Amino acid sequence: MRRISPLTLLFFLVSCNSAAQEQVVSGASDTIPSAKVTLLFVGDLMQHNAQLEAARTSQGTHDYSLCFSLVKEQISRADIAIGNLEVTLGGKPYAGYPAFSAPDEFLYAIRDAGFDILLTANNHCLDRGKKGLERTILMLDSLHIPYIGTYRNKEERCQHYPLLIHKNGFRIVFLNYTYDTNGVKPTSPNIVNYIDKKIMQQDIDTARTWQPDAIIACMHWGNEYQSLPSREQRQLADWLLEQGVTHIIGSHPHVIQPMELRTDTLTGTQHAIVYSLGNFISNMSKVNTDGGLIFTLELEKDTVTPSIPNIRTRHCGYNLVWTARPTLTKEKNYIIYPTDSTSVSKLPEAARNHLNIFVKNSRKLLQQHNVGIKENKK
Hints:
It comes from Bacteroides intestinalis. This protein is α/β, with parallel strands linked by helices.
């Protein structure tokens, strides 16, 4: 299992049109040239009221240690693991929907599960206004967790965005944008990355000047509870690829949407598009909302002639995960189950039935609509 370690920060004298901030995901492999890097993406990390109550201890604190126990090994094994933080860390009083403010212990558990980067541009990032946005950033900074999507001011966005990560000899740029913030506007000087083609074009152009091995756009978009991407999602995905984005990872609908692996007919470059990862952990119980995807993307490049970039998508695939709720399991807390885990057999019959419905619906959807991307097998 990969040791979880903080990111090493390397600062440069910069402007908004030059390299913002390079970050190195540190670890033993950093000193050994590598031709491969594995990225892992999960969907929405949420905290509804029932989750807050389930995690509450007799001492008044919150314990999330069991929530990620069955997926921690897979997350930690990835070189770079990314999740969508769809709550604020706005402090007390803690609350779920519609204005999320999660306990700090939730962030500790996310870090300990092995996540390296968190996305903060989503429709709930302003649930607690200026205080919520800034306290969320403060907590992320205090735990040395890189984030993308929200910023205290223009200067900090210039310094930290786009996010350039160094890992295993790869240079990977991450972008993050949201369609809206539930009608709430950021308080000056706070900044939220909205889906705005003019701004996104500038960010992509900046990223391209750094000559990265990949540019990955993480988009909070689409229509809630719709299992197929909207026309707007498809059109925006086409536009992003035309501007130079390499791969696109989506969230927001709270259900899984299909994914595709496109091949550029001129260059042979392959582009992974995941329209929606679904929920990773939540209290949602509507059909198809009680689970999601772990999507893995492995990139490879030649090291014999590093002056001639030859980046390839070595493998991409997904695993289905399902959130077991205490009302079904009679356990104290919520637990994320890989649907192919041997632990599934130990679930009560009612819980297994719900899991099986999620798996059946998901596999039918993805087998019918996916292009070039299949479920990872054990």
